[in-house]
Amino acid sequence: MLSKRNKQPGLLTQLIDVLLIELTNWRWSWRSMIVIGTLSPVLSMVALGVFARDSGKVSLSYVLVGNVVLAIMFNIMSNIESHVSFMRFHGMLDYFATLPVRRIALIPSLVTAFLLISLPALAATLIIGSLLLGVPLHISPLVLLVVPICAMPLAGIGALIGAKARTPMEANSINFLVMFLLLSIGPVIVPPQKLPAVLLILGRVSPATYASSALRQVLLGPITGQLTIDIAVLLGVTVMVYWWVSKAIDWRQ
Question: pLDDT of 19-30, one tens digit each?
């Protein structure tokens, strides 16, 4: 007789199954998610662009790419935080735990689902922002690799907030505060020469700093050796955060 462990499907099958479940959950609301997910960063871009125009193309490029990072946070990080929090307080984690699905498969599947849903909003934010700010795009094929790598650590932070917060309201408040801090410290929206030294130092521990740097290189060019450092840091943060999330999520063994 086969053991229970042997009866479980492979990890790839589990990832695909959970991904399909999540995509099905949002089949009625994905259009509104795209509209809302585009509107917020575009309005932010318009407001910041007014002040950045007098500072030249460099400042405008930071506004453009920084708001693409904001779009990733708004569409993926915040949605995963809300979804994990909702699952905790409505018993959905107990449901998933009864399925032949390993805990390690849940968060990557959530990230992939929200990334797929948010791609139109990210593309719209980039194109509209480029036209509004007059910043030309020089998109590298590496963008297909860099965008998911940038999304993973930010999504993991959202999942961690949703898994640790005591109430859904607390989760939303903490998520907003973390988003604000990640965008404020380091050269994400503002060029480094316009930031105080203390924010530049703090920005070295923020994944948003490395995400913004990587995206600037693959969206606007040129690509330098810094891209390798950015990707390595983002992957390292992803591994640490996902390990923490896997420990934080209550899962019936």
Answer: 888 888 887 777
| Largest distance between two CA atoms of the chain | 74
Q: Say if 168 falls within a structural domain.
A: yes
Q: What is the pLDDT of residue 2?
A: 42
The answer, yes or no, to whether residue 6 has pLDDT greater than 60, is no
Residue 11 lies in a domain: no
In a domain, 202, yes or no: yes
pTM: 0.86
Encoding tokens for residue 190? Answer: 């503002």
Give me the number of domains the chain comprises. 1
Residue 83 falls within a domain, yes or no? yes
Domain interval for residue 200: 27-248
